[in-house]
Design brief:
heterodimer; A: Rossmann fold; 2 domains; four-stranded parallel sheet; B: 155 residues; mainly beta; SH3 type barrels; five-stranded antiparallel sheet
C-alpha cells in the first residue's frame, strides 16, 4: 500500500515521477472519470482552506467523491476517541484518507492503523509533502530545478512548508539561502541534515544581500503568536516585508512563491510584478493532488 | 580481591543470584538504576560503586543487583548511556552468562520524545520509536533529534 507521509520517504526519481504525472493531469491528458468509483475521506482536524479545497477539487475532477470532517469539535475526538480508532473506522468507509492534524507524526501513526492509503496534508510543524510537490512543480514550470539558488524567507523554525521544501531541494543540487528573524531560524538539526545530504546552506542577515542572486524566493508567513507582543511582531514583520522597491536589479526570471495565506510579508503591489507567482502556485495544488490521489488509489 | 585485605580494593560482597553490571561509564551508575526502574522504594538489594579504578576505563561504576536477571530490552537501554558496560548474570555465586551491551538500531518505548507536539506524547496507542544514528536519536514519528542528555529522556 502506498502512503504519502513525508518528503524524507522519497527519492528524486519518485518526486520526478509524481511531477511528470501532475504535468499530464495539468495538460488534460487523463480520463475525466478515472476515480469514478472511489471515495476519499478528508479528515481535517485543523483549519485549512486551500489544501482541503484543492484535494476536494482534485477528487471531483477525477470523477471521484469525498466525505469529510472539518474540525475537531465536529468529530468523535471530543468524546475522547483516539486518532488510531478514528483511522481504523474511516478505513472501512473510504478508499483513501487525506489527513491534516495538529500533532507531528500523526500521519505516520495513521498509516500504521489504516487499511487504505494515507496522504499527509500537514501534521503540526512537521511535514506537508503535497505542498512541497506543488512548490517543486511551480518552479519546474519555469526553470529546471537542478542547481538553482533558492532563498527561504520568514519563519523557518515552525514553518513546515519550508522544512519539507528544503529537504526536497537537497535532492536537486540546489544552493539554499536562509533569511529568518532571530529566534525563527531553521532548526539546527534540519540545517545539519541538509548539509549531510550535500546541500550548500548559506544563512543571511537580510534579504537585500542575497536577493539579486536568487532564482526563487520562497516567502513564509511570520506568525504573530510567535512573538511576546504586537510591537515586536510588527518590528520584525516590517523588516522582512517584500516590496516592489526591493526588487530592483533582481534576475528577470526570479520567482516569488508563498504557500499562502500571507499576512503582511508580501506587499500587494508585488502582485502586479512578473515575479509574483504565488497564485499560480496555489492553482497548481489541483493537478499535483490529482496525481497523488490517482497514484494511491489506482 | 579479598574481603579481609582492604588495601586490595573494593569491599563489595559477591552476590549469590542476580546481575553484576561492570564497566559502567564513571558517574552513570545512578542513571543505570533509573533506567532499570530501581528507585529508593523498590525492594532489590543493591550494591553501587562509583568512580572505581579501572584498567580499561580509568574510572568506572559497578552495580550489583541481587535476585534479578536483566532482560534483553533492559540491557539495550543501558547501552545508551554506558556503551562499554558488561553484564554478568550470577547463579549460586557463579557467572553463568557474560554479555556486552549493544545499542539497538531502533528503540521502541525506551525514550520519551522531547517534542511536546509529537503524536507519541498523546493518548494514542503507540510507543515512542527512535532510530539510533551516529548524531543522536531520531524520532520516527516527528523527526525530532535527541543529541545529548539521553538519560533524562529515558522512560
Amino acid at each position: 500500500m502506498y502512503h504519502i507521509i513525508s518528503i524524507r520517504d522519497f527519492e528524486r526519481k519518485d518526486l520526478d515521477y509524481l511531477l511528470d504525472r501532475a504535468q499530464e493531469f495539468d495538460n488534460g491528458n487523463y480520463r475525466p472519470r478515472m476515480l469514478n468509483d472511489k471515495l476519499a475521506a478528508l479528515l481535517f482536524f485543523e483549519p485549512s482552506t486551500r489544501t482541503r479545497m484543492s484535494f476536494a477539487t482534485a477528487m471531483a475532477r477525477l470523477g471521484g467523491r469525498w466525505i469529510s470532517v472539518d474540525s475537531v469539535e465536529a468529530s468523535s475526538i471530543v468524546k475522547g476517541e483516539t486518532l488510531a480508532d478514528t483511522i481504523r473506522v474511516v478505513s472501512g468507509y473510504a478508499d483513501a484518507i487525506v489527513l491534516r492534524h495538529p500533532k507531528e507524526g500523526a500521519a505516520r501513526l495513521a498509516s500504521e492503523f489504516a487499511t487504505v492509503p494515507v496522504i499527509n496534508a500537514g501534521d503540526g510543524a512537521g511535514q506537508h509533502p503535497s505542498q512541497t510537490l506543488l512548490d517543486l512543480y511551480t518552479i519546474r514550470q519555469s526553470m529546471p530545478v537542478e542547481g538553482i539558488n533558492v532563498g527561504l524567507l520568514g519563519d523557518l523554525r515552525y514553518g513546515r512548508t519550508a522544512h519539507s521544501l528544503a529537504l526536497a531541494l537537497s535532492l536537486y543540487g540546489v544552493t539554499l539561502h536562509t533569511i529568518a528573524p532571530g529566534g525563527l531560524e531553521m532548526p539546527a538539526s534540519i540545517t545539519l541534515e541538509l548539509r549531510e545530504r550535500g546541500m550548500e546552506v548559506i544563512e543571511h542577515e537580510n534579504v537585500q544581500e542575497v536577493l539579486r542572486d536568487l532564482d526563487v524566493l520562497y516567502v513564509t508567513r511570520i506568525q504573530r503568536e510567535r512573538f511576546p507582543d504586537s510591537a515586536s511582531y510588527y518590528n520584525v514583520a516590517s523588516s522582512y516585508r517584500i516590496t516592489p522597491d526591493l526588487l530592483d536589479g533582481v534576475k528577470d526570471h526570479l520567482m516569488i512563491l508563498h504557500p499562502l495565506p500571507r499576512a503582511g510579508e508580501i506587499d500587494p503591489a508585488v502582485d502586479r510584478t512578473p515575479y509574483a507567482r504565488y497564485f499560480e502556485q496555489a492553482r497548481n495544488g489541483v493537478p499535483v493532488r490529482m496525481a497523488l490521489l490517482h497514484e494511491v488509489m489506482k | 580481591m579479598s574481603r579481609t585485605d582492604p588495601s586490595r580494593g573494593l569491599l563489595v560482597s559477591p552476590i549469590r543470584n542476580g546481575t553484576v553490571i561492570d564497566h559502567i561509564t564513571a558517574g552513570e551508575a545512578l542513571n543505570v538504576l533509573k533506567i532499570l526502574g530501581i528507585t529508593g522504594s523498590t525492594r532489590e538489594c543493591l550494591s553501587i560503586a562509583t568512580n572505581v579504578e579501572s584498567k580499561r576505563l580509568g574510572k568506572k561504576d559497578i552495580v550489583k543487583i541481587e535476585k534479578r536477571e536483566l532482560r534483553k530490552e533492559e540491557v539495550d537501554r543501558i547501552a545508551l548511556i554506558a556503551p562499554q558496560a558488561r553484564i554478568n548474570i550470577i547463579r549460586e555465586y557463579q557467572v553463568v552468562e557474560k554479555k556486552g551491551v549493544e545499542i539497538p538500531k531502533v528503540l521502541k518505548g525506551v525514550v520519551r520524545c522531547p517534542n511536546p507536539g509529537c503524536i507519541t506524547n498523546t493518548r494514542e496507542p503507540v510507543e515512542s520509536t527512535f532510530e539510533v544514528l551516529g548524531k543522536g536519536l531520531h524520532c520516527l514519528y516527528c523527526d525530532w533529534l535527541i543529541k545529548d542528555d539521553i538519560a533524562s529522556h529515558i522512560i
